[in-house]
Design goal:
single chain; alpha/beta; Rossmann fold; 2 domains; 7-stranded mixed β-sheet; 4-stranded parallel β-sheet
Length: 296
């Protein structure tokens, strides 16, 4: 089977299912696993490089309000590749090529590829995407094993923190303007022994004010800017140090959201383990990476 992945999380799931040799092209943002970096790219970013967080937000708003896309799809290259399956998403216009554009282009390709859209809003739905991909690619047994392993790890985290005090958490997905994380993030916080004071499981990320975040009185603030690694998030957090300090949380940390929180792929479980480590390090001493403390 010849598969094109137009979503980084889908690329990760496909490789986790043992389908790496059948993935023939990916997006310009697919950077995990390392093998994905060597594959042809069929998308490009329409935004100029070097924009600040505020400029990115303004540019995205302007383009989406005018019905313009954030990413462009290389249709000639797709025609040349002749895929059998294209995996995309319709959940977030900022995260991938327009679903409607993908369907329209697929209809013009001689191989008439099947288009699958993965649009999870919770951790359970993300794991459900494994079943969808496994069924579509003949990897049912691999899918069952992958879900079983993820479920066991989730249970291990919940068991480790079940006797720990519940900490109030504010997860910030963007800082200029401020967005609180939604979708699966509040669920990860709950499973890791915390309580999301602003976000709701399965609901979209929402814009809030700095005053609203302070009024929620979180014990821990986690800066998890969408698409940023820990170092970039830490740098951004320092730029808003006065705002973050005014919240009054006992701890502010920056994490690698690009790897562990932004993408609903297999590393969401790593994100859960990282969250448990942040909130209850004594109960869960190991994590896939260390958060960066933001000294205010």
């Amino acid at each position: 089977m010849r598969i094109v992945s137009l979503v980084p999380s889908a690329t990760e799931w496909l490789f986790a299912l043992g389908l790496g040799s059948e993935v023939i092209a990916v997006t310009h943002e697919c950077d995990h696993p390392a093998q994905a970096l060597t594959l042809p790219k069929v998308t490009r970013d329409t935004l100029p490089a070097g924009l600040s967080a505020g400029q990115i937000d303004a540019a995205v708003r302007a383009r989406t309000q005018h019905g313009e896309t954030i990413y462009e799809l290389d249709e000639p290259k797709l025609h040349a590749l002749q895929p059998d399956l294209i995996v995309t998403q319709a959940l977030c216009a900022v995260c991938a090529v327009s679903y409607d554009d993908v369907v329209a282009i697929a209809a013009r390709i001689d191989s008439r590829p099947r288009v699958i859209s993965l649009d999870p809003t919770t951790l359970g739905e993300a794991l459900g995407d494994v079943r969808t991909l496994a069924e579509a690619t003949g990897r049912r047994d691999a899918g069952v094993d992958l879900i079983a392993d993820a479920s066991a790890r989730i249970d291990r985290v919940r068991l480790a923190v079940r006797e720990q005090p519940l900490l109030k958490v504010a997860a910030l997905e963007w800082l200029d303007p401020v967005y609180i994380a939604g979708h699966w993030t509040p669920q990860l916080i709950e499973y890791a022994g915390g309580f999301d004071v602003l976000g709701l499981p399965g609901e979209p990320s929402e814009r809030r004010s700095w005053e609203q975040i302070a009024e929620a009185e979180p014990d821990v603030v986690i800066v998890m800017q969408c698409g940023y690694d820990a170092e970039r998030a830490h740098t951004e957090a320092l730029l808003f140090g006065e705002r973050l300090a005014a919240i009054g949380a006992g701890e502010v940390v920056a994490v690698d959201a690009s790897s562990y929180f932004s993408r609903p792929g297999p590393r969401l479980v790593d994100g859960l383990e990282l969250m448990a480590h942040i909130l209850h390090p004594a109960a869960f001493p190991t994590a896939p990476s260390e958060p960066l403390t933001v000294d205010l």
